[in-house]
Structures are given as structure tokens and as C-alpha cells.
Design brief:
The protein is about 25% helix and about 30% strand. It is of the alpha/beta class. The chain has a single domain, classed as Vaccinia Virus protein VP39 (Rossmann fold, 3-Layer(aba) Sandwich), CATH 3.40.50. Strands 7-6-5-8-9-11-10 form a seven-stranded mixed beta sheet, sandwiched between helices. Strands 1-2-4-3 form a four-stranded antiparallel beta sheet. Helix 4 runs parallel beside helix 6. Bound molecules: S-adenosylmethionine. The site of S-adenosylmethionine has 19 residues, from helix 2.
Length: about 210
């Protein structure tokens, strides 16, 4: 089994083993003391870890998280990582994201468009990891645009949602196209389907070229 980053453990909740991090609960998830359940069905990164992908995460990394939404996953990331920049462009989920940031002094919300990294380049430092979960067309372009923040030995952890590129096309064709586009700036190290946790999603681990 692949190793989990420091600060992420498998623990029992209601008799079932699950990933967990230590931090303030966010949406009524089951807890065990300081530990809170990390549900892979609600988190692409959680699903990548459950599927045994080699994310390269050791814990304590500096992270740029693209597509933070209301903060479900990025809250877990901030529980085990260092400074974590959370980009989300929709105002409504960003409101909930602010509440998630409250008790997490290492989590910085940015109400920005991930397709326009120049709008937050003055705030974000070089990072060890870019985690991307933006349900939008042009997911490879978003990753390529944000490669500038990634350290040379850093990692891109990307969840590709086929339906966001084209609802009508065969997901495998979409994945091939996204992977090919990524090659312009990344070397893809591993890919894996995120089923049964997320239909028609591909988990990708890549490093900058
Ligand atoms: C699937 S949800 C993310 C869920 C979140 N990552 C989690 O696991 O808690 C995708 C999010 O990406 C955001 N998004 C889509 N395009 C974006 C863009 N260009 N810039 C920033 N956020 C974007 C959407 O508003 C939405 O909140």
C-alpha cells in the first residue's frame, strides 16, 4: 500500500476504516477526538490516495489548490500541509471557504480565476504541489498556466473531469486529449481512474518539464 502523507491516517469511524486528518470539522463529518473523516466520495484527492496513487505528498508541503469550492478537500490539505493557497472564482462557495479558513491560519483564500494566474502571482510563493480540481473546460490549459508556481521538483495532482470538457464524448478520448495537452509542460508520472468514488474522472500525477 502507498504511504500516506504525515498528518493523514486511516482510522475507524462508526466501525469503518477511513482516511482522516486532524483539524476543525467542516461539514458535520464524523470525528474521533481531533481526527475528522476524509470522505473520498467527496474529494478527488482523497480518492487518489484511496486508489493508492503515488502522490509524492509527505506532509508539510506548500500547496496551490485550484478549484477550492466550499473548502471540503482543501480543509484536509491545510490540516497536513504547510502554507496552502486556495483559488476559487465563484462567490457563493467562497463564502463557505472563508469559514473553513478561520481556524486554519495556514490556509489563504483567493477569490480568483485559475485561468488568470497573473491576478494572484503577487501573492502566491513558489509551491511544492499544485492540486487541481476545477470542473471547467480547458483543464490542461489551467494546469499549464499555473505551472509557473511549481518548484522544479514539484508535483501536479490533477483530477480531470471528462464531462467538463465535453459531456457527449467518450471519457477515454477526452482523457487522452487532456494528457497530450499536458505534455507541453509536464511529464505525466501516473494516471488512474477515480472510480468507484467519482465517475468519469481521471487522477493524474505529473511533474514539470
Ligand atoms: C468539483 S468543484 C471543486 C470541489 C473541491 N475541490 C473539493 O473537493 O472540495 C470545482 C470548483 O472549481 C471551480 N472553478 C471552475 N472553474 C474555475 C476557475 N477558472 N477558477 C477558479 N475556480 C474555478 C468551481 O466554481 C467549483 O467550485
Amino acid at each position: 500500500m502507498t504511504s500516506l502523507p504525515a498528518g493523514v491516517e486511516r482510522r475507524e469511524f462508526d466501525g469503518r476504516e477511513s482516511l482522516a486528518t486532524r483539524g476543525e470539522p467542516v461539514s458535520g463529518e464524523p470525528t474521533d477526538g481531533d481526527w475528522r473523516r476524509w470522505d473520498p466520495r467527496r474529494s478527488k484527492l482523497g480518492a487518489m490516495l484511496e486508489r493508492g496513487m503515488e502522490t509524492g505528498l509527505a506532509g508539510d508541503e506548500t500547496v496551490l489548490y485550484l478549484g477550492a469550492a466550499a473548502g471540503t478537500t482543501v480543509s484536509h490539505v491545510a490540516d497536513f500541509a504547510g502554507p496552502t493557497y486556495a483559488v476559487e472564482f465563484a462567490a457563493r462557495p467562497a463564502r463557505d471557504l472563508l469559514a473553513v479558513c478561520g481556524p486554519r491560519p495556514n490556509l489563504f483564500p483567493l477569490l480568483k480565476d485559475a485561468r488568470k494566474p497573473e491576478t494572484y502571482a503577487h501573492v502566491v510563493e513558489p509551491v511544492d504541489v499544485v492540486i487541481q480540481d476545477v470542473a471547467t473546460r480547458g483543464q490542461a490549459r489551467v494546469a499549464l498556466a499555473n505551472r509557473r508556481f511549481l518548484r522544479e521538483d514539484g508535483r501536479l495532482l490533477l483530477a480531470v473531469k471528462a464531462r467538463s470538457e465535453d459531456v457527449a464524448r467518450d471519457p477515454d478520448e477526452v482523457f487522452d486529449e487532456v494528457l497530450e495537452a499536458l505534455e507541453e509542460g509536464f511529464e505525466v508520472l501516473e494516471t488512474r481512474s477515480l472510480e468507484p468514488y467519482h465517475d468519469d474522472h481521471l487522477g493524474v500525477v505529473a511533474r514539470p518539464r
